[in-house]
């Protein structure tokens, strides 16, 4: 079984058990009080005596202009909103390694009652530290493993990728789009495919190339990957990495590209076609309020365009009006639930039909995507 398959399976299990787990949290806490070894009192337990302490673990610098910067904007927004009821802090550029475990143990030891681990690769370390500190609540972004004191959360980045794909489909002249990809997990594969599906909704003949950099944040590698795609005939680029390097490379080479996660328009005014922006603030506000109210629960949360967590912003002026109208229509459909990106017919790039006409991909399907759709070159590493 490949890692991707294992993840898909675990995700299915996680989705099915999330509700049951949520229902059990209360009972679990009673048992822990009776049987758990003594641990340092958490900030949650001590809430009436002072502010709720909350710490954020970031994989890249807050100045990345993308993924981490957006989490940081969310942190600042809740700090402003909740004032002296909370005390937030962060540690940036923490690798997805034992360093993450060390930093989270320290955060727990400092009296933080709520810890946000904001990258997929922190998963095993979150589980380890959470098991040892049952009074501390953990929120893990993009993971799939929950526990009594671990919730997972993500945004539907694939919806932003699809909206960007529509614009790409209207702008590519070579009919070849490209994606600089980070790490081969279903979330990233789903985003690549969704971008291509958006482009093909405008012109089904569009093909796509992908280059993996196997890191979330490495501007030199991101830039190199973009260069090789451009040299291979790509004239519109997307990325699932954290920095604006792909966009900046597009600017230098006279092709077009998108911002991702954050508004990256300022980095490449000529190349920029739009930014698929994440807003973590609504989710962070909810979690903070729930915790202050003593209502925090484990579970899995996945918010998208409908919940105001994702949008494509600052679409370039030279994008034709009919393409902008297509984006507006898809956005409206995502908002009111009448449109789903993953609606059949969808086939993989070997010709196998995976969703029949009109069939909508359900949660297990979406969380287990480990193939490339028709028109994408190559194979998913470790996938189909
Ligand atoms: N950048 C750093 N970590 C992540 C992650 O887990 N998901 C996404 N989409 N981007 C990231």
Cα-atom radius of gyration? 21 Å
Order of helices and strands: HEHEHEHEEHEHEHEHEEHEEHEEH
Q: Could you give the distance between the termini?
A: 12 Å
Query: How would a crystallographer describe the biggest sheet?
Result: 6 strands, parallel
Kindly report the spatial arrangement of strands forming the biggest sheet. Answer: 2-1-3-4-5-11
% residues in beta strands: 15-25%
Structural class: alpha/beta
- Total strands: the figure is 14
What do the pLDDT scores average to? 89
Helical percent range?
40-55%
Tally of helical segments: 11
Shape: globular
Bound molecules: guanine
Low-confidence stretches: 1-47
Keyword list:
384 residues; alpha/beta; six-stranded mixed sheet; binds guanine
Short description:
41% of the residues lie in helices and 18% in strands. By secondary structure, it is an alpha/beta fold. Strands 2-1-3-4-5-11 form a six-stranded parallel sheet, with helices on both faces. Strands 7-6-8-9-10-12 form a six-stranded mixed sheet, sandwiched between helices.
Structural topology:
Elements: H1 3-35, E1 52-57, H2 67-82, E2 86-91, H3 98-109, E3 114-117, H4 123-132, E4 137-141, E5 150-155, H5 157-171, E6 176-181, H6 186-202, E7 207-212, H7 219-231, E8 236-239, H8 245-253, E9 256-261, E10 272-278, H9 281-292, E11 300-303, E12 310-313, H10 321-336, E13 346-347, E14 353-355, H11 363-367
Parallel strand pairs: 1-2, 1-3, 3-4, 4-5, 5-11, 6-7, 6-8, 8-9, 9-10
Antiparallel strand pairs: 10-12, 13-14
Helix pairs in contact: 2-9, 3-4, 5-6, 5-10, 7-8
Bound molecules: guanine (GUN).
Guanine (GUN) binds next to loops.
């Amino acid at each position: 079984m490949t890692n991707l398959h294992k993840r898909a399976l675990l995700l299915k299990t996680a989705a099915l058990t999330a509700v049951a787990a949520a229902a059990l949290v209360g009972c679990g806490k009673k048992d822990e009080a009776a049987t758990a070894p003594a641990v340092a009192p958490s900030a949650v337990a001590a809430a009436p005596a002072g502010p709720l302490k909350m710490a954020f673990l970031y994989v890249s610098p807050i100045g990345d202009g993308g993924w981490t910067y957006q989490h940081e904007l969310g942190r600042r927004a809740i700090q402003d909103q909740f004032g002296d009821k909370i005390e937030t802090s962060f540690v940036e550029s923490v690798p997805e390694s034992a360093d993450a475990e060390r930093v989270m143990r320290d955060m727990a030891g400092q009296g933080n009652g709520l810890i946000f681990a904001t990258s997929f690769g922190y998963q095993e370390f979150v589980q380890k530290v959470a098991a040892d500190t049952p009074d501390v609540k953990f929120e893990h972004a993009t993971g799939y493993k929950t526990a009594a004191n671990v919730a997972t959360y993500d945004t539907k980045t694939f919806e932003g990728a699809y909206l960007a794909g529509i614009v790409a489909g209207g702008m590519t002249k070579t009919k070849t789009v490209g994606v600089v990809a980070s790490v081969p997990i279903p979330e990233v594969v789903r985003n690549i495919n969704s971008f291509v599906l958006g482009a093909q909704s405008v012109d089904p003949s569009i093909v796509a190339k992908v280059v993996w950099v196997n890191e979330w944040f490495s501007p030199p590698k991101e830039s190199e990957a973009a260069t090789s795609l451009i040299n291979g005939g790509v004239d519109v680029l997307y990325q699932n990495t954290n920095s604006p390097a792909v966009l900046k490379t597009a600017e230098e080479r006279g092709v077009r590209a998108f911002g991702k996660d954050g508004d990256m328009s300022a980095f490449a005014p000529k190349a920029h076609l739009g930014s698929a922006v994440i807003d973590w603030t609504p989710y962070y506000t909810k979690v903070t309020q729930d915790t202050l109210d003593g209502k925090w629960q484990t579970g899995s949360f996945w918010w998208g365009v409908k919940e105001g967590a994702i949008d494509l912003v600052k679409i370039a002026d030279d994008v034709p009006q009919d393409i902008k109208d297509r984006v507006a229509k898809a956005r409206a459909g995502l908002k009111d639930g009448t449109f789903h990106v993953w609606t059949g017919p969808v086939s993989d790039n070997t010709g196998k039909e995976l969703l029949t006409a009109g069939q909508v991909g359900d949660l297990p399907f979406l969380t287990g995507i480990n193939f490339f759709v028709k028109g994408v070159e190559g194979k998913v590493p470790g996938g189909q």
